[in-house]
Design a protein that fits this description.
- The protein is α+β, with helices and mostly antiparallel strands.
- The chain has one domain.
- The protein contains 2 helices and 4 strands, in the order ββββαα.
Length: 84
């Protein structure tokens, strides 16, 4: 895979890999991984982090629609109870 140099500082080098992901090397050429890599990429604004469990905005309307569908079903149960 070909890697293109994105940014070089005194502390690290950032590369973009052929699969569109990023690789980070420290000043000695050793790979940087884990939280340190994420912090570097965040500082350079190359990635955005979303918290696990955070709901995307698009899912909220789907939940409202399912709640509206359930409301008439509850009304029919009440009607049956009054008919008896």
């Amino acid at each position: 895979m070909a890697m293109n140099l994105i940014k070089k500082t005194n502390e690290y080098k950032i590369f973009k890999r052929g699969d569109e992901r990023f690789a980070v090397q420290d000043a000695t050429g050793k790979p940087v991984n884990g939280e340190e890599k994420v912090n570097i990429l965040l500082a350079e604004e190359l990635i955005k982090v979303t918290l696990p469990g955070a709901e995307p905005v698009e899912e909220a309307p789907a939940e409202e629609a399912s709640a509206e569908e359930e409301a008439p079903a509850e009304a029919t149960d009440e009607e049956e109870a009054t008919d008896a």
